[in-house]
Amino acid sequence: xxxxxxxxxxxxxxEFLFDKKGSQQQADNDVMFASVSGLNYQMQTDSLRxxxxxxxxHTIPLRSKVTDLVLRRGIFKPKDSAISQWCHEAFNxxxxxxxxxxxxxxxxxxxxxxxxxxxxxxxxxxxxxxxNADKGxxxxxxxxxxxxxxxxx
Length: 153
Description:
Layout: E1 12-17, E2 35-37, E3 41-48, E4 58-66, E5 69-74, H1 82-93, E6 99-106, E7 112-128, E8 140-146, E9 149-152
Antiparallel strand pairs: 1-6, 2-5, 3-4, 5-8, 6-7, 7-8, 7-9
């Protein structure tokens, strides 16, 4: 058993597995995110009523479904980020290819403790945080990605 348990949730990196033949190559700054959320499975269910039994309904599982993956980071110019270019192409030209992502939870030596592989992600939303002169905050961009499923490796 690891001497460090439970692991901390603030040391991680996200790698987009863009097609090596394509025009997009992940930049060094594209692994740095402030937060990742949405590695969730939910079971879809259906209710079944039994004839003559009025006290309850049977709930049966149908299939699992994932929630959207949400990635937040300080904003980069699209020319400095393959992820921003990918989203820009998707929303402005409606041309994109779904990509796989690898999310690594790291230890103190920057080695992966746990790895999640997200399959066939595509951009569903891209948001830039509000500008506010009253607050001295970093401008955050948020990527909302739809994906088929994830595996724990």
